[in-house]
Amino acid sequence: MHSSPRHMTKAALMAAITAALAWVVFPLPFSTVPVSGQTVGVMAAGILLPPRWAALSMVVYVLLGAVGLPVYAGGGAGIGVLAGPTGGYIWAFIPSALFISWGLRQSWAVRAWSKITILVVGGIGLIYIPGVLQLMAYTGLGFSQALLVGALPFLLGDALKILFCWWLAGHPAAREERLRS
User: Which CATH number do you get for residue 62?
Assistant: First the structure.
């Protein structure tokens, strides 16, 4: 991994932004999984950083929470959160950021907005799959019920996050960064 102070700084910043966005929380009365801003940080890391650095930013984020810093949704922290009903979502931030970043840097014969949409939806899917599976394992819910409380309530918010990603990816600084990496 090519190490540069610029990439290290940006990776640390993306971990910090994801931690700050984790404080934007809307609890759902019917689910142990809240709506939070964390995934905006994951998507932004994927858009703004080269693949390895995007993944590393989320590794740093996960580790900060694992050692007890209150960086998970609503100030959660510790190994208990990673092993609990929302842990699967958090672990999946790493491959999600990597996937979005890698995909944006590939040549595709599709419009930029379509590419961003496909990658962000795929990145969200990469978060939902282990998230719902761990939710099932932790709570004993069946697949359909876990989907109802651990994925479906978040689709509207994720659609709004995709709009933000369109803006962010189209921003001149983001385009310039992708050209440099």
Answer: 1.10.1760.20
